[in-house]
Design a protein that fits this description.
binds 2'-deoxyguanosine-5'-diphosphate; binds fe (iii) ion; mainly alpha; about 0% strand; globular; 11 helices; about 190 residues; Hypothetical protein af1432
C-alpha cells in the first residue's frame, strides 16, 4: 500500500463503518483495475478518497461546492449527492491531488455520467459492489463486472433508479443521462 499517509488522514475523518466501506472499495477497485487493465495504484487512491467528504454536514458541503459552481446542481436532487462533487474539490485542495481522472471519478461516483472513462467506471462499480454491500441484484453486478463493465454499469443504473423511484425520491438528471447512454448502446 503506497498511500499510507492518505489512508491515515482518511481514517481520522471517517466514522468506522464508512472507513471499512472505503477499505472494501479500495480492494474491489484494485481487483477491477487489474482485471480490466486500469492503473491499479491510481484506482486505489481514488477509492481511498472517494467518500472523503461524506461525514460533513450539508451546509458545509454546499459551502465547498458554492466556491466552484452553483450548489443547486446537486442539492436540489437530495443532500446525499453533495459529498461526491464537494469531495472532489476538497481532495484537490486538502491534498494537492490535481489529477483529472481522480477528480472526475470522485465527482461522479454517486450519479455516474454518460461516457465515463474505464477508470471512472471501475471506481463507480467498486463503490456499488464492495464486499460490505448487500442488496438485491448485487451478485449479478459482481459477476458482470468481471466480464463486461458496461453491462454491469447498466444494471447498476437500472437498480439505482428503480430504488429511487420505489422510495419516491428524485433522480438526478445525470443519473438519467447515464442510464440513457448505457441503454442506448444496446438500442
Ligand atoms: O456514499 P456511498 O453510500 O458509499 O454511495 P454513493 O455515493 O453511491 O451514494 C449512494 C446513495 O446515493 C444511495 O442512497 C442512492 C443515492 N443516489 C444515487 N443516485 C441518485 C441518488 N439519490 C438521488 N436523489 N438521485 C440520484 O440520481
Ligand atoms: Fe459516496
Ligand atoms: Fe455509488
Ligand atoms: Fe462510497
Amino acid at each position: 500500500m503506497a498511500h499510507e499517509w492518505f489512508q491515515e488522514k482518511v481514517r481520522q475523518v471517517l466514522p468506522k463503518e464508512r472507513y471499512n466501506h472505503t477499505l472494501g472499495v479500495m480492494q474491489t477497485a484494485v481487483a477491477l483495475a487489474k482485471r480490466h487493465g486500469v492503473d491499479q495504484e491510481k484506482a486505489e487512491l481514488a477509492a481511498l478518497l472517494h467518500d472523503y467528504a461524506k461525514p460533513l454536514p450539508k451546509e458545509e458541503l454546499v459551502a465547498v461546492l458554492k466556491k466552484h459552481e452553483p450548489a443547486e446542481n446537486f442539492s436540489e436532487y437530495g443532500g446525499v449527492l453533495l459529498h461526491a462533487p464537494a469531495g472532489a474539490y476538497m481532495v484537490e485542495e486538502a491534498f494537492g491531488i490535481e489529477d483529472t481522472e481522480i477528480f472526475s471519478a470522485i465527482y461522479w461516483h454517486t450519479t455516474g455520467r454518460p461516457q465515463m472513462s474505464l477508470f471512472e467506471k471501475v471506481i463507480f462499480l467498486a463503490d456499488y459492489m464492495e464486499p460490505g454491500r448487500s442488496f438485491p441484484g448485487l451478485e449479478e453486478v459482481r459477476k458482470l463486472a468481471e466480464v463486461d463493465v458496461d453491462e454491469a454499469l447498466l444494471v447498476t443504473y437500472t437498480n439505482t433508479i428503480q430504488h429511487l423511484l420505489a422510495g419516491k425520491r428524485m433522480v438526478h438528471p445525470m443519473t438519467v443521462a447515464a442510464y440513457n447512454d448505457a441503454i442506448g448502446e444496446k438500442n
